[in-house]
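User: Teach me something about this protein's shape.
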Amino acid sequence: MRRIGTGLRRGAVAAGVAAALGAGVLTGLGPVPGGASSHREAPLVSADPQVDNTDLYAFVSPDAPDTVTIISSWIPFEEPAGGPNFYPFATGVRYDIKVDNDGDAKAEVTYRFVFRDHRRNPNTFLYNTGPVTSITDPDLNFYQTFDLFRVAGGRTTKLLDDALVVPSHVGEASMPDYASLRSQGIHSLPGGGKAFAGQADDPFFLDLRVFDLLYGADLSEVGDDTLDGFNVNVLAIQVPKEDLARAGDPEANPIIGIWSTASRRSTRVLMSDGSVRWEGRWVQVSRLGMPLVNEAVIPVGLKDRWNASRPASDGQFLAYVNDPEVPRLLNLVYGLPVPDSDPETPGVQRADLVQVFLTGVPDLNQPAGVTPAEMLRLNMSIPPCQPGTCGSYSRLGVVGGDVAGFPNGRRLADDVIDVALQVLAGELLGNPNDLGDGVDANDVGFGSTFPYVALPHSGSNAAPH
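Assistant: First, the predicted structure itself:
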């Protein structure tokens, strides 16, 4: 099998992490999971894209290092010209960003977005009736607002009330200065911090032809960012570290776990006038933490269950993390060996994956007394490291010697596809490899200030990609 990409750069820290991961047995493992959502990864959310959480990112803010930025992406494969309704967030849904700050696999802090629709003129099919020069422009016929809540310590606090959502990018004639609309949609939070809801370029980059027998069965189908030109909807918050850390002390308690969910009422009622009403209890229908796990680790028969489950009950999925399907497919198609880090210890065949995906890595982002559960884990005490600003920066994150990157949180530019392929193939178990999809960066650059994601592609474009 030929290798793709450049050789790995191994710093002293990465070597130490690799040694720790491959060193052996996790004691007292208890219940353990596997999971995360991604683009159209499960049967139910594939038919309900408004609650399909495609990606989750969490990192110390490079331009405000006393804060953390968390970004969740929704609605996959938004074709920019997809009118006349374009891509609103769902109403009657709780979009949650959840934070575990004591390692118990339960959320101590939740940020909740709830949306409402508004139409200035219901007697037209138009999204906008003229050029839109501000997000309050009366020519923006359809618009959304959101309330943002912080739930912590048994209290719910409303941080924003009827904040405006930045609309979909209809086109250059309709929205001649979309960057200005973006800036107007960044809202300040009481006590410090920012929030944003709106459309953006899809920051995930990869060659999706991986599903064609692992890049064509001969690595002929690599090197093309198949998300180039598509947009997503984004929810982003930037909050002081004190608001996330246990006891409000990020120096003593710097490690947090993050995941995002969407919940709907259990019953959908279709009315004879064409309207829809939702009734019943709240049911979680989407969940995302670490990238690619629900898409490429959890089998199709359990994907909807995964999306409805909670980190504290992740033990039911342990077998799929311990013996994931991808290495066996690499063996079947390309003859690569199937790694096994600890064959003598039942239940811990892949201690490296358990630590990367479930518990955090010792001396990096594993909290004391951790309950194994799938989520992004971020050590807030590690300074940010971005391209061009940090000598140890690597798109491969920790595997490339850069401890500020994935799986210590996830930055927008982290190449999680290459990292996942290399780790699943045994990179941390003494099987060095340069596996990758040949796509090393996003099709457009990211911003240097909040919300960091690139502006969405315009509906004026003839076609995505």
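Now, about its shape. The mean pLDDT is 88. The two ends are 29 Å apart (CA to CA). If you'd like, I can walk through any region in more detail.
User: That's plenty for now, thanks!
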